[in-house]
Design a protein that fits this description.
Two copies of one chain form a homodimer. The first copy, chain A, is an alpha/beta fold and 245 residues long. The first copy, chain A, has two domains: 160 residues, MoaB/Mog-like domain (Molybdenum Cofactor Biosythetic Enzyme, Chain A), CATH 3.40.980.10; 68 residues, Alpha-Beta Plaits (2-Layer Sandwich). Helix content of chain A is 38%, strand content 25%. In chain A, strands 2-1-3-8-7-6 form a six-stranded mixed β-sheet, sandwiched between helices. In chain A, strand 7 and strand 8 form a beta hairpin. In chain A, helix 2 packs parallel to helix 7 and helix 8 runs antiparallel to helix 9. The longest helix of chain A is centred in the last third of the chain and has 16 residues. The first copy, chain A, is elongated, with a radius of gyration of 22 Å. Chain A starts with a strand and ends in a 6-residue tail after the last helix. Strand 2 of chain A pairs antiparallel with strand 2 of chain B, so a sheet runs across the interface. Chains A, B: It holds the Pfam family MoCF_biosynth. Chains A, B: InterPro entries: CinA, FLAD1_M, MoaB/Mog-like_dom_sf, MoaB/Mog_dom. Chains A, B: This is Molybdenum cofactor biosynthesis protein. Chains A, B: It comes from Bradyrhizobium nitroreducens.
């Protein structure tokens, strides 16, 4: 249980890079992973281009415990994620009999055309991520979890796959509102961060309800005692501030 | 004017990877770049970690015409973007006299502490990105544009830096609503995409106002005639569809 479990996200899609579609998956997966004790370390967004997908996938899958991909598993010509993943792993890809059987239950012979059958193409050896409400399945191969780009479907897939993942010691987090501007607390905060090496202290400015610059201070640690000690030091520092805002 | 100008985005910040903050900058910059004729090719998100920042920056800046970074230029210990950029370029970094002079106009001697002075640290040779309303400046060094993480400030910085960038032939785009499910048009759409190689055809499913699965088809090209020809083929295909939804 003391292992640190890490992850990368690979978002695949021209529509994100053109700005036509605003990604909502990164934030969702990031929060989800934090809650189940997996450290998200890196995100990449690439276009619907096979060499780019393979290069990013290889970089991430060799570096992190898990890689989550979103997008590119639909029925059209620009959906090339499954083929790219198969190439990255050096395995074959074919229509998965179980998926084809489910498609035949759902669609008539006429509707189950070549395009829809593409959604049944799964790399050899992959494990399906599916449910009664998910039409085109995702899959897990090695440490790579391949999911849909449509947020509601991706979220359903996360719920299916999450219980199968190993998770590490959860990163704990505590937040205090400084009622001070970042610039007024930067120097003492740096000293506290240096004195509490097993914690991560973040400083996030925001405009408060009085339209004054304010700051949230977030202390994170896997060790509850170290977190509490660092947070106590932060609160002592804030209590001793002599500033006017 | 026939040059293709490309870009990468590097988002820097633990708070994005933990899911605490939901990024709004990628979508904004993506759309902005499309509108000024710059092709966004890749996005990366990394933590507040100097080796990770430098590695991602080096990968992106050698590959694309421009790199836009967001985050990590505030006054606290976790703001390490400027120092990381200086190291990546192998140049020194020091308090920029022009920025310090502006800070002295704004803050009293007591308020202009070490933390705030950190925001005046600019890599040698960088050009400032600033205005009367921007407190801590961004900067441009080589092909790297360093901006704030707070969306409103980042957006102001984009407006300042954009006129100085070279832009290529703008990618044109046209969209048609298919009134069909993706799976019903995947095969003919693939044939059209193959027959129109200087265009990019994207297929984006959505639930329409009648809660039926529907699809937007987007044709993109730098050549208006080729775009029009491909879009005409798409519309002919849609008009000839014999499907019930």
């Amino acid at each position: 249980m003391s292992e640190i479990v890490t992850a990368g996200i690979l978002v695949i899609g021209d529509e994100i890079l053109s700005g036509r579609t605003k990604d909502k998956n990164i934030g969702f997966i990031a929060e989800y992973l934090t809650n189940i004790g997996i450290d998200l370390k890196e995100v990449r967004v690439v276009s619907d281009d096979e060499p780019d997908i393979i290069a990013a996938l290889d970089a991430l899958r060799h570096r992190y415990t898990y890689v989550f991909t979103t997008g590119g598993i639909g029925p059209t010509h620009d959906d090339i994620t499954a083929d790219s993943v198969a190439k990255a792993f050096g395995v074959g890809i074919d229509h998965h009999p179980e998926v084809v059987a489910r498609f035949r239950e759902r669609w008539s012979e006429q509707d189950l055309n070549e395009a829809r059958l593409r959604m049944a193409r799964i790399p050899d050896g992959a494990e399906l991520i599916q449910s009664a409400t998910i039409l085109a399945p995702g899959f897990k191969i090695g440490n790579v979890i391949v999911m849909a780009g449509v947020p509601s479907i991706m979220q359903a897939m996360m719920d299916i796959v999450a219980p199968k993942l190993k998770s590490g010691v959860r990163m704990l987090s505590d937040t205090v509102r400084a009622n001070a501007r970042e610039g007024d607390i930067g120097s003492p905060l740096r000293a506290i961060a240096a004195a509490h090496p097993d914690t991560i202290i973040g400083s996030y400015p925001f405009m408060d309800e009085e339209q004054k610059p304010n700051t949230n201070l977030v202390v994170r640690s896997r060790d509850p005692e170290k977190l509490a000690a660092a947070m106590a030091a932060v609160k002592d520092m804030l209590a001793g501030l002599n500033i006017t805002r």
